[in-house]
């Protein structure tokens, strides 16, 4: 196979989101995962291998050959070992993890359909990176490299796509009733907090790459992603990391809890910020989330290395602003990156407190299986570094249709109508930018 590792003759890309949307929308490179982290955008495409884990079966593919086996143990260890068995030769892996990945750690497997996908990973042949360094392409043929150059150049000259209106207030899921039931369970001391969500089905086919481009122009995410992998298309603007483990074994998670609307004018936004910082319900919700994240981090870190920084900072994320903190620790020598992810997954701000009872409540009270919603998009390096970003503020599509989803943190002080309004505020980060497929 002819490959190149070439910096294209482009010094700076003014609109990386347009470039990534164009590469994805060109439909020339098979399945792909696009991932934006601070300072870098990567488009990984045309898998030469992959790992798919569902409730009952592990399927490992390499260069066109697939081996399927029944698996035992915990999903994180199974995936870690499967990746280790492949001749990656320095290649990265990209993919997604569904919320149901957590069921083994929290004794909730009885709620799962046997066909539920837990993990989808791919090892790409082609990677395109964009940053201050310009553009770098690896794994592509010379002809493909030229095509990539042309597509990126063309993308910089196109206008933003036009959205299709979406009504996010329609709710066939009886969300307010489910919130009221959760409040009753909290008052009965079954748990302290749970995140309940609602799904908004879209009555048309969506152009996911175009939606990503338009949405990214109006969002300020911690990370963003765009993918087509394992029969699922998705794009989103993540407000936080579930977990990252860097090459020096520093583990980081970013619990976010506490929300107000944003983008309604400077005076209104500042008033909402002040209200957020003084609202006892929001402060309690955030504080118990940080406390849980700290305990989880300490369980996988060297003693004395766990710390909280930026406690209760206000971070603006598209149509909302959140209370956010950062929790870090040094990964213990006898722990792997996947074990750290398993302990921190799902994000405490997308599940419940305590997690065991909260997750049980999610499986009982949420209207549909979550899948990628409140799961993670993940990148894995051959040196053991790993990053998993929380999937919220996203759009999803399969051959069965397209949908949005959003949730709110329910505590004893919650009011069903206010929590419904919070889901509408969060859907405002993606719903106004949905582009209908032509």
UniProtKB/TrEMBL annotation:
<dbReference type="InterPro" id="IPR015890">
    <property type="entry name" value="Chorismate_C"/>
</dbReference>
<feature type="domain" description="Chorismate-utilising enzyme C-terminal">
    <location>
        <begin position="173"/>
        <end position="426"/>
    </location>
</feature>
<protein>
    <submittedName>
        <fullName>Salicylate synthase</fullName>
        <ecNumber>4.2.99.21</ecNumber>
    </submittedName>
</protein>
<dbReference type="InterPro" id="IPR019999">
    <property type="entry name" value="Anth_synth_I-like"/>
</dbReference>
<dbReference type="GO" id="GO:0043904">
    <property type="term" value="F:isochorismate pyruvate lyase activity"/>
</dbReference>
<keyword id="KW-0456">Lyase</keyword>
<dbReference type="InterPro" id="IPR019996">
    <property type="entry name" value="Salicylate_synthase"/>
</dbReference>
<dbReference type="InterPro" id="IPR005801">
    <property type="entry name" value="ADC_synthase"/>
</dbReference>
<keyword id="KW-0460">Magnesium</keyword>
<dbReference type="Pfam" id="PF00425">
    <property type="entry name" value="Chorismate_bind"/>
</dbReference>
<keyword id="KW-0479">Metal-binding</keyword>
């Amino acid at each position: 196979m002819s490959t190149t590792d070439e910096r294209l003759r482009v010094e700076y890309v003014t609109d990386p989101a347009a470039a990534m949307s164009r590469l994805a929308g060109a439909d020339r490179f098979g399945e792909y995962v696009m991932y934006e982290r601070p300072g870098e955008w990567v488009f990984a495409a045309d898998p030469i291998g992959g790992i798919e884990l569902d409730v009952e079966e592990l399927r490992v593919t390499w260069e066109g050959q697939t081996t399927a086996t029944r698996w035992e143990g915990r999903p994180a260890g199974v995936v870690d070992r499967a990746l280790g068995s492949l001749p990656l030769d320095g290649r990265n892996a990209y993919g997604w993890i569904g919320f149901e990945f957590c069921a083994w750690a929290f004794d909730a497997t009885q709620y799962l359909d046997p066909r539920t996908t837990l993990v989808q990973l791919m090892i790409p042949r082609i990677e395109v990176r964009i940053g201050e360094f310009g553009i770098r392409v690896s794994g592509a043929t010379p002809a493909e490299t030229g095509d990539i150059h042309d597509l990126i150049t063309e993308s910089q000259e196109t206008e933003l796509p036009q959205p299709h209106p979406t009504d996010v207030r329609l709710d066939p899921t009886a969300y307010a009733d489910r919130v009221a039931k959760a409040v009753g369970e909290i008052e009965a001391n079954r748990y302290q907090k749970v995140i309940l969500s609602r799904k908004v089905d879209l009555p048309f086919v969506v152009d996911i790459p175009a939606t990503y481009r338009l949405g990214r122009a109006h969002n300020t995410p911690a990370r963003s992603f765009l993918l087509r992998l394992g029969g699922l298309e998705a794009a989103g603007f993540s407000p936080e990391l579930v977990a990252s483990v860097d090459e020096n074994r520093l583990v980081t998670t970013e619990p976010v809890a506490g929300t107000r609307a944003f983008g309604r004018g400077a005076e209104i936004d500042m008033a909402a910020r002040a209200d957020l910082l003084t609202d006892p319900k929001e402060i309690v919700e955030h504080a118990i989330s940080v406390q849980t994240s700290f305990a989880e981090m300490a369980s996988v870190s060297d003693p004395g290395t766990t710390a909280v920084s930026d406690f209760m900072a206000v971070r603006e994320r598209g149509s909302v602003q959140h209370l956010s903190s950062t929790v870090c620790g040094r990964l213990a020598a006898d722990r792997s990156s996947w074990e750290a992810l398993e302990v921190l997954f799902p994000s405490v701000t997308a599940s419940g407190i305590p997690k065991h009872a909260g997750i049980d409540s999610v499986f009982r009270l949420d209207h549909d299986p979550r899948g990628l919603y409140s799961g993670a998009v993940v990148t894995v390096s051959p040196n053991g570094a790993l990053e998993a970003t929380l999937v919220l503020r996203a759009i999803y599509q399969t051959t069965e249709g397209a949908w949005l989803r959003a949730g709110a943190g329910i505590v004893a002080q919650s009011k069903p109508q206010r929590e419904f309004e919070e889901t509408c505020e969060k859907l405002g980060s993606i719903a106004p930018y949905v582009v209908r497929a032509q």
